[in-house]
Design a protein that fits this description.
The complex is a heterodimer of chains A (199) and B (1033). Chain A is mainly alpha-helical. Helix content of chain A is 38%, strand content 9%. Chain A has 7 helices and 7 strands. Chain A has helices at residues 2-10, 13-40, 57-61, 121-128, 134-146, 150-153, 158-166; strands at residues 77-79, 84-87, 105-106, 117-118, 173-174, 178-179, 186-187. In chain A, the strands form 3 sheets. Chain A has a 3-stranded antiparallel β-sheet with strand order 1-2-3, with helices on one face. A two-stranded antiparallel ribbon of chain A has the order 4-7. In chain A, strands 5-6 form a two-stranded antiparallel sheet. In chain A, a hairpin with a 3-residue loop joins β5 (173-174) and β6 (178-179). The termini of chain B are far apart. Chain B is α/β, with parallel strands linked by helices and 1033 residues long. The radius of gyration of chain B is 33 Å and the shape is globular. In chain B, 21% of the residues lie in helices and 24% in strands. In chain B, β24, α13 (645-653) and β25 form a beta-alpha-beta unit. Chain B has 20 helices and 37 strands. Classes of the chains: A mainly alpha (199), B alpha/beta (1033).
Chain lengths: 199, 1033
């Protein structure tokens, strides 16, 4: 009885039409999606579509009991995710720069030039984290996503964007085996480093 | 132009050395490859093969031999037993060992009627390698490829010829290859403890990997950086490398449960760019990779973006493992990035525990000419005939350091999963591998590094690891042969150029650190004569640094003969976040032992000019042999301990002491030396140096020059297009810088010409090969000249490189002056019959036009010529071999030639140590470096043990315990993440989502079909009816 009614219901032209239309749309959309996936990013990675987060100044400031991420690699300096640069010895147990330490500075653009290229990596990251750079970084990010770049998909927030953007990359080299600018090689601007000719 | 003009090429290391017996060793240009046999034979002392006239049983053979030897009265002999299945069958030969009086015994044996002949026992080793026609050395395919030269990365193609292991049946010279590499290294012991590589992220930078390969279970990610729109491996290199690390089936890998991250950075044509690597490396940092395998490399250690990036990776706690290269057995052939001090550079050995012939070796050459190379490779492991995954899902055997590198990377991934996470820094792992490595008997430290990988001991070491710093090598025993070669070959003496040891500091205390202080403690009573000066890197980063020690003897030890000992204490300081917020100090003791002898005679001391040698990378400096077009760059450093190693050994055998000049000639007291060797110099000379040389020769220093080709138009001709940098490369000099050399030699009225000759000739009873050399253009009347019949190679190349062919006789040969002997201040004559005091006061000059024959690996070495030249230069005695060859007429102008001109628009000044960078001529002469010695604080100490090498006892595989973590959940990282947000819960792999996608799609498609069918059923009939109606009307 119930079964027959259901059957009759879904045999109605209108219902059939809706099912047909929605299924067709789904098919077309997913085919298109797969197609663009194939041509744009042919990468076999586990995509966790983490939304990109612009952290607010307040989040930058959450200190005391939180733990910081920091740039592990520095020769002498370390930058944490709040934008503080400090000496290696000025790192607290939670991975944050100790703000009270003498050499700690925030959003420091030391060694950087007007093209947003810096000599020292840690200052590049710190400078890049400055909320004043937000607008420019948004342009940078939109440009990046256009490029079929697997790297961009794994970025989670502005700190990761700055860490990644400041590293030397394929945009930093001239003739493959030399830097475009051996001095200011860490850049976070929207334009890649200018080729600097030695005398 | 600011770019350093140099070529970058990576090579994938895969060398096939299948022992296959196939005919065909002619170079006929039709076959794409051929097989070349290589024999090395050694006479086995005191063993002889007796061949009989017929086949006899063992007893009768023995009777014959004993009867023959009894007659000759020889009792001291034994028969070599041959344990094989033929021993019970009649044989026609016997091998015996004679202990004394060989000659009488052999005569007696030969006289015996049943003996046909007696021959010395030879040990024959035969290796067969595939040679691609492109690499053909024979004259038939001589010059064809200069302009088409396309970097060395092509080599992989030719060598990479799949041959399944089970496809051949031939004799093996190596010991039987074990089935599984993992069981040889006892990885199964760790597997049985539940250590399987779980939770360790291993990155493979290679040619990709197919998703559906049956051997792999945990391919976490595959990314392509080449833009080829594929992730699959078409070459088999990446599959093999990944298989050695993590294969789960058939030919097992070391860490079957490790997470594989496949980075495809080589195209199917083996093209690769630095920029691809940079982006891929950035992604690897982002993904917090634990172990990264690079079975790639190239000679360009001056590719700063690449080198800096590798350091950056290490600083981000990525353990870098790389293959040392397949350019052995030549020395000075280490490849980047394996030669970086932070990377674990892996060399290859065979299953017979001997260094594989292909494995690159020798010191690093970054530090030349002022310093001395570091010890590399770091460790060696099996790299010959290892079984791994093949493209089609089966297994294959391959050889190469490409194979050895993933063996180590896989081993690290395995042991890493069984030890606490905080112990997993690049420094700790490198220390674990190096300190526990088993040293091989025989090879020196520049061949084997710390020795052979011992997986179980390394595991145990890392389990109990305490953060520490260590030194590599851990001691300096300048007397210990073979391991401390070449240090042990030449003792120290007063006034000699300092002997330099370049120590690598591996700092497990933290990413960055510094050398706080260094103290020198000579051991009383003799140690005080040794002077030690020290230089070190400012900041030890990343996890590694260098410390260079220069040893010299004080004047008080000028007559001392014996052993001196002492030790150096190095304090390393590091700030460590994970260690109670404190700066940690560690003092390391470096034992030192050296042999000191009284100062040798002046006529025994030679000075080797390293300062004026320029090489690739930096600029395009071509090889000295124009036929070596498969490897056209001069990159072996031209040092007596690298590619001139064989020459150095010969000189030492003949009692000469060779010292290296790493600074301008003006910094050297030339009155101490008998002769200065200028071999293959590429740089210019300071005017001050020329004046100093003139003065030195006038007061008795002799000069020996081995020059090489130079011709400005030929330089332009041998340019080639480099795909990697997308630029044309023109050589900066010829084989040697003849214009500069001519300036130097002009003080003796000697000049070399600009024509290039090649050919085989006989000189003094030796067959010589003149591989692209220059000739003598002008020479003083009173000099002695030697001519040879040679072919004009320059003209041949310029005229389009017609093959000279085997029919050498067809080619016009010219009588060319190639060797000149000159007494600089008087008649050149033989002074051997005169007394020493009649010998002219000024030195002598010997000039030869080709230097390739002095290099190791030369087909026809001319070390004898160098020795003969030295005999003349140091004693004034013209060897008879040269005296006879000297041409009667001394006319150097028998062939028309010009003086070579410096190439216009040349960029030598960009690489020169002498010319100013702006091209305005020579720069001001640098100040002679004078490093003040360390203050000696002597201590009383008993003589050290026979060997200074620290002993690390191997761990018994049965004694090791299971990891505390039990391999269930990886322990949390103790370090603060490298910038990436704390890992979120991973949604259950994308495989899951792709399945659900497919299911949804299936449902949607069936719904569409269903709807269409229903519509058709209902309205199709109506339509038909309507159609009929319309037709009817």
């Amino acid at each position: 009885m119930f079964y027959a009614a259901l059957l009759r219901f879904i045999r109605r032209p209108l219902v059939l039409g809706i099912i047909f239309a929605s299924s067709l749309t789904y098919c077309i959309v997913s085919f298109l999606k797969e197609g663009t996936n194939k041509s744009m990013i042919y990468q076999d990675v586990s995509m966790q579509h983490k939304p990109f987060v612009w952290r607010t100044l307040q989040e930058h400031n959450e200190t005391v009991d939180i733990e910081c991420r920091n740039s592990v690699q520095g020769r002498a300096l370390i930058v944490d995710d709040r934008g503080y640069v400090c000496e290696r010895t000025g790192i607290g147990k939670n991975g944050c720069c100790i703000i009270e330490a003498e050499d700690t500075s925030r959003y420091s653009c030391q060694s950087c030039n007007e093209d947003h290229c810096c000599i020292i990596y840690e200052y590049c990251v710190s400078c890049c984290l400055d909320p004043k750079q937000r607008n420019m970084l948004q342009v940078v990010l939109s440009k990046l996503t256009v490029e079929e770049h697997v790297l961009v998909h794994s970025l989670a927030d502005d700190y990761e964007l700055c860490l990644t953007k400041c590293r030397t990359s394929s945009h930093s080299v001239l003739h493959e085996n030399s830097y475009k600018d051996p001095g200011h090689k860490h850049c976070f601007g929207s334009t890649p480093a200018e080729t600097k000719m030695e005398s | 132009m600011g770019s350093t003009h140099c070529i970058k090429f990576f090579t994938l290391y895969l060398l096939l050395k299948n022992i296959t017996c196939t005919q065909g060793n002619s170079c006929n240009g039709t076959a794409s490859e051929r097989i070349e046999y290589e024999y090395t034979t050694d006479i086995v002392r005191s063993e002889y093969i007796i061949t009989f006239t017929g086949y006899y049983m063992k007893a009768s053979r023995e009777n014959y031999v004993s009867a023959a030897l009894k007659n000759a009265g020889i009792k001291n002999w034994t028969m070599v037993t041959r344990e094989n299945r033929a021993k019970d069958l009649p044989s026609d030969f016997e091998v015996i060992t004679l202990n004394d009086n060989h000659k009488a015994a052999l005569d007696a044996l030969r006289d015996h009627p049943a003996v046909r002949r007696v021959t010395a026992q030879r040990q024959v080793q035969r290796t067969i390698k595939y040679i691609n026609e492109d690499d053909c050395q024979s004259p038939e395919c001589l010059y064809a490829g200069w302009r088409q030269f396309r970097r060395r990365s092509r080599v992989l193609n030719s060598l990479r010829k799949p041959h399944e292991n089970d496809g051949y049946s031939s004799r093996k010279l190596l010991r039987t290859v074990p089935r599984q590499i993992t069981s040889v290294l006892k990885a199964d012991v760790l597997w049985s403890l539940g250590v399987t590589g779980e939770g360790i992220k291993v990155a493979v930078f290679d040619t990709g990997l197919s998703r559906n390969h049956p051997h792999f279970g945990h391919i976490r990610e595959r990314t392509d950086w080449t833009g080829e729109k594929t992730l699959d491996d078409a070459l088999g290199h990446g599959t093999f490398v990944a298989g050695v690390i993590a294969s789960k089936a058939d030919c097992l890998g070391f860490a079957p449960d490790a997470e594989l991250h496949i980075f495809r950075v080589f195209t199917d044509n083996q093209v690769s760019y630095t920029s691809w690597f940079l982006d891929a490396f950035n992604y690897a940092i982002m993904k917090k990779i634990d172990v990264l395998n690079l079975s790639i490399g190239g000679p360009d250690f001056m590719d700063h973006p690449f080198v800096d990036k590798v350091w950056e990776l290490t600083a981000n706690k990525v353990i870098m493992v790389s293959a040392i290269g397949n350019d052995g057995p030549l020395y000075g052939t280490l490849n980047n990035p394996a030669d970086q001090m932070d990377v674990i550079g892996v060399g290859g050995i065979g299953f017979d525990d001997r260094i594989a012939k292909f494995s690159s070796r020798g010191m690093t050459t970054w530090e030349l000419p002022h310093g001395y190379g570091r010890m590399k490779p770091d460790i060696v492991t099996y790299g010959s005939g290892v079984r791994g995954s093949s493209l089609n899902g089966g297994c294959r055997s391959l050889s190469g350091t490409s194979v050895a590198s993933p063996v180590v990377a896989g081993a690290i991934a395995l042991l890493a999963s069984g030890v606490p996470r905080q112990n997993l820094t690049p420094a700790a792992v490198k220390q674990a591998l190096c300190i526990t490595a088993r040293r091989l008997q025989g090879p020196n430290m520049f061949e084997q590094g710390h020795g052979k990988l011992d997986l179980i001991s390394a595991y145990q070491f890392l389990r109990e690891y305490e953060p520490q710093a260590s030194l590599s090598p851990p001691y300096i025993d300048l007397t210990e042969c073979q391991y401390m070669w070449p240090y042990c070959t030449q003792p120290l003496y007063y006034s000699g150029q300092p002997t330099i040891a370049n120590i690598t500091i591996i700092n497990g205390l933290g990413v960055a650190g510094n050398v706080k202080h260094v103290t020198w403690h000579p051991h009383l009573p003799n140690g005080l004569i040794l002077s030690v000066s020290m230089e070190h890197i400012d900041i030890i980063w990343p996890y590694s640094g260098w410390l260079a020690l220069r040893f010299s003897v004080l004047e008080s030890g000028a007559d001392f003969d014996g052993i001196v000992e002492g030790h150096i204490n190095v304090t390393v300081e590091s700030f460590d976040v994970s260690f109670r917020q404190k700066t940690r100090n560690m003092t390391l003791m470096l034992p030192i032992r050296a042999r000191v002898i009284p100062v040798p005679l002046r006529s025994r001391r030679l000075l080797w000019d390293q300062f004026h040698s320029l090489r690739y990378p930096g600029g395009y400096f071509p090889r000295d042999d124009l036929r070596a077009k498969h490897d056209p760059l001069d990159w072996h450093a031209d040092h007596i301990h690298t590619n001139f190693r064989d020459m150095y050994l010969r000189l030492r055998e003949h009692g000469y002491y060779v010292e290296v000049m790493g600074s301008p000639l003006t910094c050297i007291n030339t009155s101490l030396y008998g002769a200065l060797l200028l071999v293959d110099p590429e740089d210019e000379y300071f005017p001050e140096e020329m004046a100093a040389l003139k003065k030195a020769v006038d007061s008795g220093l002799s000069l020996i020059v081995f020059a090489d080709w130079y011709n400005a138009s030929l330089l332009r001709h041998v340019k080639f297009y480099d795909e990697n940098t997308r630029q044309w490369w023109i050589p900066e000099t010829g084989g040697a810088n003849i214009p500069a050399l001519n300036d130097l030699l002009s003080i003796f009225q000697v000049a070399l010409g600009d024509r290039v000759f090649e050919g085989t000739f006989t000189l003094g009873g030796h067959t010589m090969y003149y591989a692209s050399g220059t000739h003598i253009h002008s020479f003083p009347e009173h000099g002695v000249l030697v001519n040879a019949q040679l072919v004009d190679q320059g003209q041949q190349i310029m005229s389009g490189g017609k093959p000279s062919g085997n029919a050498k006789s067809n080619l016009p040969t010219v009588d060319v002056p190639i060797l000149g002997l000159l007494q600089t201040d008087g008649e050149t004559k033989d002074y051997s019959n005169d007394t020493m005091d009649k010998l002219p006061k000024a030195g002598r000059l010997v000039v030869y036009g080709d230097s390739s024959c002095l290099e190791s690996g030369a087909g026809r070495p001319c070390h004898w010529l160098l020795l003969a030249a030295l005999q003349y230069a140091l004693g004034g005695h013209v060897p008879t071999s040269l005296k006879e060859a000297a041409s009667k007429h001394r006319d150097v102008h028998i062939i028309p030639s010009e003086l070579p001109q410096r190439a216009e628009g040349g960029r030598l000044h960009a690489y020169s140590r002498v010319l100013a960078a702006d091209g305005s001529g020579p720069r001001p002469i640098p100040e002679c470096e004078d490093i003040s010695p360390l203050v000696a604080s002597p201590v009383q100490a008993p003589p050290a043990a026979r060997t200074l090498a620290p002993r690390h006892h191997p761990t018994d595989p049965r004694s090791i315990g299971a990891p505390e973590t039990e391999g269930t959940e990886p322990a949390p990282r103790a370090w603060r993440g490298a910038g990436v947000a704390p890992a979120k819960q991973r949604s259950d792999s994308e495989e899951h989502s792709s399945y659900s996608n497919r299911a949804l799609m299936f449902i949607a498609i069936s719904a569409i079909i269903y709807c269409t069918v229903i519509f058709w059923k209902r309205y199709g009939r109506k339509m038909k009816r309507r159609k009929l109606i319309s037709l009817a009307t």
